[in-house]
Amino acid sequence: MNLTKRQYKILNYIQEQESAKRADIESYISSFDDKSSKITILRDLEVLLKQKLIKKTGQARSITYFPLNYNELLKKYDVEEYFKTEADNRVIKYSQFNFRVFIQLQNLFSTDELKEIEKTNDIFIQKTQKLTPVILKKEFERLMIELSWKSSQIEGNTYSLLDTEILIKENIEAKGHKTEEAIMILNHKKALDYIFKNKDYFKVITISKLEELHTILTANMGVLKGLRKSPVGIIGTNYKPLSDQHQIKEAVEKLIKQINLSQNPLEKALIAVIMISYIQPFEDGNKRTGRILANAILLANNYCPLSYRSIDEREYKKAVIIFYENNSLNYFKDLFIEQFKFAVDKYF
What we know:
Elements: H1 5-17, E1 20-21, H2 22-30, H3 38-50, E2 54-57, E3 64-67, H4 79-82, H5 111-130, H6 133-154, H7 161-170, H8 179-197, H9 207-217, H10 245-261, H11 265-279, H12 286-300, H13 313-326, H14 330-346
Antiparallel strand pairs: 1-3, 2-3
Helix pairs in contact: 1-3, 5-14, 6-7, 6-8, 8-12, 9-12, 10-11, 11-12, 13-14
């Protein structure tokens, strides 16, 4: 269930204050919206309670509201409202890398979400067990083509899905496109072939395995191998990734440790894809590497990989930017779960 703008504001107020009485909430809302009655705000609070976003204690005037199991990474934002403000005018919480984020990279899914995820993946397992080896191979090929297309499109590649299929199957480049675009897509294929053939290899993640995938994905594209030694900037945000080589290595080491410590494969994958984007450990190809590593983790643990076929690349980028600027993972997590369910439903 989606929240209204007012409900978002109430939730954010309770989270920021850590606790709030109803009178305080009413006073806060009335400071910018004098049309909302007490009954309206009570109804909003009931919505937040039913969605298990807040809890309350006490009775009558002594009722106090608290954020429920609050983790800053799970803070909700009104995405549409947030991006009405251009990058240079947005008030952001973190303009530089926040090392404290590693402490919060746990319990990212609610109990209900985990139940739904496991139920969905059970369907994936049942479906694949019924397929012949030939059909299973074809389905993985279909997913591989569509992921190579969409992952490249997110990075600005202009190949169509049909052109991508012809390129991968027949090695024919589309007319009117740069050679670099074809290389990007074919590198995706090589990386995906590699993780499909070496599933167990990615049950435990290391820096060298991360660098292997990056090397495959950026081959023949003029990108230096290994962790970057120079600063990088990101279009559309004032967030600045780490520039110190030692800090970059430290962040990657912490990330690898956290991925391996997590007990849930989907959480491992989610951490991998968003944090590689956040750290930007390489001079280019970071988001691509994150998406492929996440799928390697899922496959290694017998979970359905994602193609991202139906995702709107603009929404994907918005979700990443909100994480950069505020360390809010909630919108990206919603998109990630949505794409996981889509993959189970559309493939195999």
